Amino acid sequence: MAKRRFEQSRHTHILNLANQGLRINDKFPSFSYNITNGTLTAIGHLQPRFTSPQYLVKIVYKLKDIPKVWVISPILHPKAVHLYADKHLCLYWPKEWVWKGDQTIADTIIPWTGSWLFFYELWLDTGKWLGPSSHDFHP
């Protein structure tokens, strides 16, 4: 008799947009959010250092998509690095980490945005990206 092989499936509990928004407001009360046509849009200020300006950031998230973050103001340097073509921030290397809907934007995307802004400011000062980078990956 042949043995059947069963694979245990992993079921993740995708957080709905309202839960994501509530968690953002819980951890970052200065952020506001709205949900329209299946898209959560959150806007708020981050300040990576005491001497930094207040950066206004916008997060757009659709279920089963990857959250995207843009800096609205102040305007980023025209030659800023670690940005995608549409100017949303490159917060992580997709070959190392994949967004899953059971993760909270408040615990991942927003803190990583603060880190990105910190390393952006260092880049402005030094001309070198001193933060984590896909260029640093060596298998």
Question: Would you give an account of this structure?
Answer:
- This protein is of the alpha+beta class and 139 residues long.
- The protein is 21% helix and 19% strand.
- The protein has helices spanning 17-27, 109-126, and strands at 32-36, 39-46, 55-62, 68-73.
- It has a 4-stranded antiparallel β-sheet with strand order 1-2-3-4.
- A hairpin with a 5-residue loop joins strand 3 and strand 4.
- Residues 1-9 have low confidence and may be disordered.
Shape: globular
Element string (H = helix, E = strand)? HEEEEH
β-strand percent reads: 15-25%
- Main β-sheet, in a few words? 4 strands, antiparallel
Number of strands: 4
Structural class: alpha+beta
Fraction of residues in H or I helices: 10-25%
Mean pLDDT: 87
What are the segments in which pLDDT stays under 50 over at least 5 consecutive residues?
A: 1-9
The radius of gyration computed from the alpha-carbon positions, rounded to a whole number of angstroms, is 18 Å
Number of helices: 2
N- to C-terminal separation? Answer: 42 Å
Main β-sheet, spatial strand arrangement: 1-2-3-4
Brief overview:
The chain has a four-stranded antiparallel beta sheet with strand order 1-2-3-4. It has helices at 17-27, 109-126; strands at residues 32-36, 39-46, 55-62, 68-73. The protein is of the alpha+beta class and 139 residues long.
Give the key terms.
single chain; alpha+beta; 21% helix; 139 residues
How do the strands and helices of this protein lay out in sequence?
Blueprint: H1 17-27, E1 32-36, E2 39-46, E3 55-62, E4 68-73, H2 109-126
Antiparallel strand pairs: 1-2, 2-3, 3-4
